[in-house]
Structures are given as structure tokens and as C-alpha cells.
Fold:
Amino acid sequence: MARFRMYPTSGQEQQMLLHCAHARYVWNLAVEQHAHWRRDKVHHRPDGKRTGAPSFAEQCRQLTEARAASEWLRAGNQTVQAQALKDFARAKAARFTSGFGEPTWRKKFVHEGFRVIGDDRVPEYEPDGRPLINPKTSKQVMGRAVTVQQLNRRWAQVKVPGCGWVRFRLSVKGKGARLPAAKTFRVTLRNGQWHIAFAVIPDPIDKPGTGEVIGIDRGVTITAALSDGRSLNCPQLTTRERAQVRKHQRRAARAPKGSERKTAAYAQVARLKAREANRRKDWCEKTSTMLARTYDLVRFEKLNIKTMTARVKAKPDPDQPGQYLSNGRAAKAGLNRAILAQGWGLLRQRTGHKAPGRVEDVPAPYTSLRCSACGWIDKNSRKSQAEFVCSSCGFTCNADTNASINVAAGQGGIPRPRRTAGAGGVTTATGRSSAREPQPTWVEIPLS
Structure:
């Protein structure tokens, strides 16, 4: 996916907003149609035959009738509206192929965007360079392509239906400095900024062939601790920018409900939050590229981010029905925001895209408690968030670096047999003796 910032004129912006409204309207009509149809209900056509939910072809025929009856729909572009139906059909099929949920409603000011299929025809070729021939017609297959032109080193333009040529800015270097060769693109509006994303499948990065393995331990204080001793931190908002966020939030809280002042204050907060998100995405792209180019095998600590950032369940008050007890929801919400601001999932996802087959997940249990020097596992060895002192061999290291070394070695999950601290004998499974019942013991084996 290649994403660029667009700079439309005022007239082009109004037409693109109309495209967004049409695409959202057609999508919501499709959602309403399929919500009306249920498997437990029987629907009949006028001729008495049973029927199901309308297919993509049937919806396209209905769209033609709707455009003939509605002047507002007819003022838009038919390709944009039909593509919204195509996206809905794919989202509907993704429930079974990819495990996604049911397509839901799209809201104004939240889901502003539309997708366009290229109208240029270009010949297609086989992977080895031979022309792709249609077996039925014996002619070369002609595929679609987006109409894009490069104006200079930093600017290019793309043809948007109904809007003409719309300019977008290229990057300084990297893949964003070249014109993408794509068949489709999506235009989105978020926080007052227009962006265009070309559907391009990037080529995987070749491994360097050095045989190096890197382990990555992800955290909140240190975003990514590498097993070679480096620490990488995802950029956040500066102190001044955070003060501006608080200032605009206070202004929005004091402003009357539904006033222009409240809307303007929240818009300022959204712009600052979008700046932070752009920095996070840029950092994840650069860091994942560095990992794919430098190491043959990248191992991540396996984390269930969705569960870690889940909302705290409410605790009903047994003495007062309808009331709830304090459950620390505010503190957990702050921790969730801190976790999501690190970009853990995006870093893992983009590294897997750029280095397919060279990224592994290591179970997280005991990676931060195991000594990377002797293998001794003891929770007391973790003195603080940043300090690790082994209670067996005395090995001292940064706690995150020690965990990343264990991740690089693939040591996670079930603890392996261990020795008694400083004795070399056997130890009980709980680490302490009991006079009431015999405790199971670990059998001593040589440590690798």
C-alpha cells in the first residue's frame, strides 16, 4: 500500500465529498438490504419462487434504477457507486474466507472515502515476461491501470472521476518517491486531510544472508528492545503538543454543546492526534524495513494485544441494584492508550509483510523472568522495570534486553528444568518445601 497526501482545489474537494456521500449511501443501502434478509425467513418473488439476499449483479441493476429515479444519485459518478457495492460484496464474502464480521453501517464524518478502478488499459504479462494470453480469444489480456502523471521530483497528479487531475505529494526517498503502478486507489478524508492510497503489493525484501537472529521484546517504556542491546522508541507527541491537546480539550469542555467553538476545539485535538498517528506509522515502516534488511530471522514476543487492551468489565454492587463498584476503569484506559500508542501490532504486521517466512512469534511467558545466562527462572530476579539481577548466577542486565535475548533464543512458554539457586541440585516446582505433602521435583539436566 502506497499512501500520499492529496491537495485538491476547493471545487475538487466539493466533488470528492459528494463521491464520499454517494459511496456511503450505497453501502448503507446494501447493509439494510442484507439485514432485512435472514436465513430463518422465507422471501418470495412476485412469481412465487423463493429468493435470498440480492447478489452484486442484482444490486447493480437496482443501482441503475435508483440513479434514474434520484437526481442526487444521478449527479454522482456511476463507477464510484458501483465500486461501493463491489466492496460490500467482498466484505460479505470475507466473513467466510478471512473470518471478519458482518459489514456494518458507515457514518458521516467518520467513514469518508471512496474507491476508484483505473480506466486505462495496459497489456498484462506472465511472471517470466511472456504475454498473458486469453485461451478463449487467443488475444493478450488487457488489464486496468490508474492514470497517474509525475509533474516533477516532489509532485504528481492522478485522474479522479468527475474531478479531473488532482495533485498529490511524493516522498523524498524510498518507495514513496516513485509513481506506483496500481489498478485501483482509495481516497479518504480524515481530520481535514485528503489522502490517496494505491493498492500495490510490495516486493519482499531479500534476506542479507548473514545468519543473524534478532529478538524483540515489546513494552511501554521501551517500545522495542533488541537482543543486540539497542532500544527503539516510537515517537510520541512533544511536551508542547501535549499541552496544546489539554488546552483544546479544556476549551471544548467549557464550550456549549453543539456550538462552533466546541467543534473547532475538537478539530484541533484531532489534528494533533493525526500527527502522532502519522509519526507512529512512519516509524513502523522505517523500523520494519531496517529489520528485514539487517537480519535473516526476526523473532517477536507473542502478545495478544486485543486482550491486553480490552475494557474492564463492570462490577455490579450487590447491596445497591443498578449501581456499580469502582473497577479501576480510568487507570486501565490510560494503560490501553499507552499500549496502543506504541504501534506493537503494526510493527509486527509490516515486518511480516516485508520479510515473509522470516518472522516468528515466541510465547511470552517466562521470557522476562528467565536469566539469559544460566536459564534460572525466578520472579525475584526482576528487581524493577529496568533492572534484572539473577538470583542464581548474579548476572546483571537491563530487564528488557534480557527478555529480548530469551526471545532471540526461542525460549518462551513452558519453563525448562532448572537448578537450585547457587547449589546445583534439584528444586521443587514451587521453589519452597512443605511438611504436609511431598512436592514434585525437577530432574537436573545439563543446561545448554
Observations:
- The radius of gyration is 28 Å.
- Confidence is low (pLDDT under 50) at residues 421-448.
- Residues 260-294 form the longest helix (35 residues).
- DSSP finds ten helices and 20 strands in the chain.
